[in-house]
Every structure is written in structure tokens, then in C-alpha cells.
Design brief:
globular; single chain; FAD/NAD(P)-binding domain; 31% helix; Flavocytochrome C3, Chain A, domain 1; 5-stranded mixed sheet; 2 domains; binds succinic acid; alpha/beta; 554 residues; 5-stranded parallel sheet
């Protein structure tokens, strides 16, 4: 049984605001800044303000900024990468509003790399037929965006609570979101479990890569927003489409936790994937070779690893020379050298690892979830723009564009809704927390059985093993399973892992980043639609299939 509510003990403190934004990556920061004109804003974040995935983004942000590019071409590439499951209206919003949204990001202080003529320098990544990826600091795009947004936040009169794990959504009798419960760990802030009343809640909690044992995601990416939304009864969609990044620095068998990313932009600038005999195995597999959509490259790498019995493949950028590595990819160069690899003189050992959730909390075009008053943007959300496989560098853009849309929608909604005078009811915890000692078992199960290559037997075993891992110990909860950050966080990981495994088992086809060895083909007749997951009253997850993707999204 998945818990319906985490929060216990009862809140020791309360606070009031108009809009609470949870998360401080690009989506959360933009939402907070743009919502501020509509009322008081409280930004809650799990660690330090810049600890989320945005800071780690290397490649960049995609938008049709070049004179020879158009939103229509960006739309076509995005739909192709999404393999028939993108929501075309959402993609149109993304590509049409993207260029101006990027210009507003520049107006806020973001400094993208420029060509010698002073134009924004644009690169290519997998699946893009044009140079349309703006980058900063060579390969430190997310860090620069984060810096600029945090500087803007300082002047914006937004209240901030760091080191706060959000627990549950508060709702009024009509089911509308009216705030959150949270646990604050930082010094100089209200401590312990608290409750914040708000007129709207914006989830921008980022990704869920830590559900797997090796990921590009930072430690904070434990799927807290998806788990909270499930507990609140929201629709969550497309969870089976977890994207694995093709090129993560191989640190040896059994490497765990956050792994160094080798940006797709390295291939965009001309590096080649080779096997241990020096053969370029992507040539001939796809017209774009190393720059095929990400799922195609991952499959190419995994297939070649199998064929040759190798534990990893190699990325060769020796021909760039030292100056290019230093100027264009300083972060990657430093990370490789830190691990004893010098890309100037040797190919980089690479392997795929969990990277991005294409699914999440289902929203409409203004970021509204199925729970009134609860909005979602960024990686936690499923706007439908990614379909079965996200196009590279569309995620920063999605966070930016849909955070702005949420702010626009909230302006109208808050103006029309009365300020509630009652503090929302706070209910006791429901269900049993998962023991933090099983964290590694959850991650291992997901990587081994719900990873890049999937089959029914493994997926069914994963569902069964995850259920077993949540069973309370017959002797009662261990010290660790009592309410506290470790137990709450691992319960979130477990909830999300269980939902992903069930969705992956249900979808009996291969599409995008969901690769079923037992159903190797795309099956439009049976599976041209979306799987939606909900948490029922008894704490059980249900996954429902609805054919809804319009035909023209092929
Ligand atoms: C990368 O730099 O390869 C990551 C970009 C992305 O995931 O969109």
C-alpha cells in the first residue's frame, strides 16, 4: 500500500502566502519571478537554491533563433523525436513562444555565448536538423541561467525557504489545493514540520533520476513532486518514458549515484561514437548517425555493447584539439581529467544512464493539473511536449515557457477567487513509510529490471519486488522508518518507482525511450495513446490507457 499522506507529526508552525512555488530550477525561479506581480510568493526548495538539475545542464536551450530556422522546423523535429505521442498543441506553444521567452531570459541577465559577429552562438544536438541550441560558458548553460535568475530573485521580494522537503498538498473540502505541509531542516528558519496556506501551489520539483542507481541527476532529484501529486489524487502520465542519456562518463562497473554527463553538444560539434576496434557504429543506423534522436543513439550503443561484450563504448573528440576542448567544453574537460581521462589525447569511455523523465504530472497548456489550484512546470510536469522521447535541450525551454504560462493563468485566477479565511484542514499520516534501508534495493531493482532494456518477466519481478520492499517489518517499523526526512524521501522514491514499473509493464510495444525486447516494434494500432497513473483511495496505483494522440502527430 502506498501512503496517501506523509505528514506526521502534526505541524509545529504555520505560515500564509498567496502562491507557493516548490523548486528552484529554471521552472521554479521563473514561476516565482513572474507570479510575484499577482501576490505574495513563497519559494520552497529542498537544498540550496542552486542544487537542482538546472545548474547541471550542459548542452543548452533549444529555440528557433537563427535566421534560417523556424518554429515549424523545431516543431517537426520535436514531433519526430516524440514518436507519435507528443501533444501537438503543447509543442506548438513551446516552439512558437520559445524564442521570445529566451529573449526575456536574456533581458533578465542571462549571458549566452556569442559568435565573433555578436550573434547568439548556436549548436546542434541529437534530433535537430538545424543549429538551434543556445549555450553559455561553453558547456555550463544551466549554471549561467541559474546565476542570472537567482540574481533577479534577490531584487524580487520573494520569500525563500531552503532545505525544506515538501510533504503533502493541503486541500479544502472541495478538493482545491490550499497549501502544503513541509519539513524544514535549515538553520535560522522555522524548523520541523510546518504548514503553509496558499491560494495556489506550483510544483517545479524537477526530476526523478535518483530512482535509478546511476543517473545524471543530482541527489535532490528523488521524484518528490510526482509522489506528492499522486498522493493528492492528480493524474500522472507517460511515466514509462524515462530517457537515458547516451553518453555519461563510464566510471566502472557498479558506479552509483550522480554520474558526469558528456553533453550531446560534444557530438553536435563533431565527436564520433566508436567501439573498441575504432569502428563508427552509428553510421548506417540512422541518417543523422551520432546525432540521431537520443533513444536511437542509446539503442545503438547498447546493441554494440552486447555484440562486442563490452561494458561501455567510446566517444572520440581528439580531433577537436586542446584549444577547442578548453574553450567550448571546459566543464566536461575538467570532469574527465578529474577521473583520469584526457579527451584531448584519448576517447572518452561512455555508457547510457537515467537522465530525464519525459512524463510527470499531467497539465494543460497553462500548467494546470487535474487538482484545482495545483500547477506543475518543468521536469515534474507532463505537458505533452516530449511524447515518448524528449528532443535534446527542449527541457530548459519547456520549464521557461510553461512557468511563464502558469504565471499568466494565475494572474486571472487569483484576481477572480476570494481569499479563504479558514486554515485548511491538516490530516494525520495515512499508510506506512518505507524503511530508508531499502533505498539501494529500489535503485538496483529499477536499473536492473526497468532500465534501458525491458521485458515482461523483469518488469513483473520489479513490481513484485518493489511491493515487497514496502512491506512493514513484522517486528514493527525500524528506527529509520519512523517519520523523518530519510523515510519520507525513500517513500517518495518507492512510490515513483512503483508507478514507473507498472506503466512500463503495461505498455507492450517499443516506442521512444521505452524499449521492450519482447515487443520490439512500435504498435500504433494498440498503443497510440497515453498511460495515466493514479493513486486510489486504498493506496493502490492504477494505470489507465486512453488513446488520445491525434493522428497527425506521427
Ligand atoms: C546534454 O547536454 O547532452 C543534455 C541536454 C539535454 O538533456 O537536453
Amino acid at each position: 500500500m502506498i501512503p496517501r499522506l506523509l505528514a506526521a507529526p502534526a505541524p509545529g508552525w504555520t505560515a500564509d502566502t498567496d502562491i507557493v512555488v516548490i523548486g528552484s530550477g529554471i521552472a521554479g525561479l521563473v514561476a516565482a519571478l513572474r507570479c510575484r506581480p499577482h501576490g505574495r510568493v513563497l519559494l520552497v526548495t529542498k537544498a540550496l537554491l542552486d542544487a537542482g538539475s538546472t545548474r547541471w545542464a550542459q548542452g543548452g536551450i533549444a529555440a528557433a533563433l537563427a535566421p534560417d530556422d523556424t518554429p515549424a522546423e523545431h516543431l517537426a523535429d520535436t514531433l519526430t523525436a516524440g514518436v507519435g505521442l507528443c501533444d501537438r498543441d503543447a509543442v506548438r506553444v513551446l516552439v512558437d513562444e520559445g524564442p521570445d521567452a529566451v529573449r526575456r531570459l536574456i533581458a533578465l541577465g542571462t549571458e549566452f555565448d556569442r559568435s565573433s559577429a555578436g550573434d547568439i552562438a548556436l549548436t546542434r544536438e541529437g534530433g535537430h536538423h538545424r543549429r538551434r541550441i543556445a549555450h553559455a560558458g561553453g558547456d555550463a548553460t544551466g549554471a549561467e541561467i541559474s546565476r542570472a535568475l537567482l540574481a533577479a530573485l534577490k531584487d524580487a521580494d520573494v520569500e525563500v525557504i531552503e532545505h525544506a522537503l515538501v510533504l503533502d498538498l493541503l486541500r479544502d473540502a472541495g478538493g482545491r489545493a490550499t497549501g502544503i505541509t513541509l519539513h524544514v531542516m535549515g538553520e535560522g528558519q522555522p524548523g520541523g514540520v510546518g504548514a503553509v496556506r496558499a491560494r495556489a501551489v506550483v510544483l517545479a520539483t524537477g526530476g526523478l533520476g535518483q530512482v535509478f542507481s546511476a543517473t545524471t541527476n543530482p541527489e535532490v532529484s528523488t521524484g518528490d513532486g510526482v509522489a506528492l501529486a499522486l498522493r493528492a489524487g492528480a493524474d500522472v502520465a507517460d511515466l514509462e518514458f524515462v530517457q537515458f542519456h547516451p553518453t555519461v562518463l563510464w566510471l566502472g562497473e557498479g558506479a552509483r549515484g550522480q554520474q558526469p554527463l558528456i553533453s550531446e553538444a560534444v557530438r553536435g560539434e563533431g565527436a564520433h561514437l566508436i567501439d573498441h576496434a575504432g569502428g563508427r557504429f552509428m553510421a548506417g543506423r540512422h541518417e543523422l548517425a551520432e546525432l540521431a534522436p537520443r533513444d536511437v543513439v542509446v539503442k545503438g550503443i547498447m546493441t554494440r555493447m552486447r555484440e562486442t561484450g563490452a561494458s561501455h563504448m567510446l566517444l572520440d573528440g581528439r580531433h577537436f584539439g586542446a584549444r577547442m576542448w578548453e574553450r567550448r567544453f571546459p566543464t566536461i574537460l575538467a570532469a574527465c581529467r578529474h577521473h583520469g581521462i584526457d579527451p584531448v589525447n584519448e576517447p572518452i569511455p561512455v555508457v547510457p544512464a537515467a537522465h530525464h523523465a519525459s512524463g510527470g504530472v499531467r497539465t494543460d497548456l497553462s500548467g494546470r493539473t487535474s487538482v484545482p489550484g495545483l500547477f506543475a512546470c518543468g521536469e515534474v510536469a507532463c505537458t505533452g511536449v516530449h511524447g515518448a522521447n524528449r528532443l535534446a535541450s527542449n527541457s530548459l525551454l519547456e520549464g521557461l515557457v510553461f512557468a511563464e504560462r502558469i504565471a499568466a493563468a494565475l494572474g486571472d485566477e487569483l484576481a477572480a477567487s476570494p481569499v479563504p479565511d479558514e486554515f485548511p484542514p491538516i490530516h494525520a499520516a495515512e499508510g506506512t513509510l518505507v524503511d530508508p534501508s531499502v533505498r539501494g534495493d529500489i535503485q538496483w531493482t529499477m536499473t536492473a529490471r526497468v532500465g534501458v532494456l525491458r521485458r515482461a518477466g523483469d518488469l513483473a519481478d520489479a513490481v513484485r519486488d518493489l511491493d515487497r520492499l514496502a512491506e512493514p517489518h513484522p517486528a514493527g517499523p525500524s528506527e529509520g522508518a519512523r517519520p523523518g526526512v530519510a523515510a519520507w524521501e525513500v517513500t517518495n522514491l518507492h512510490t515513483v518507482a512503483s508507478a514507473i514499473a507498472r506503466a512500463a509493464l503495461r505498455r507492450e510495444e517499443t516506442r521512444g525511450s521505452h524499449w521492450r525486447e519482447d515487443f520490439p516494434d512500435r504498435d500504433d494500432a494498440a498503443w497510440r495513446g497515453r498511460l495515466t497513473t493514479r493513486l486510489g483511495g486504498a493506496g493502490t496505483l492504477t494505470t489507465t490507457y486512453r488513446p488520445e494522440a491525434p493522428e497527425e502527430n506521427a
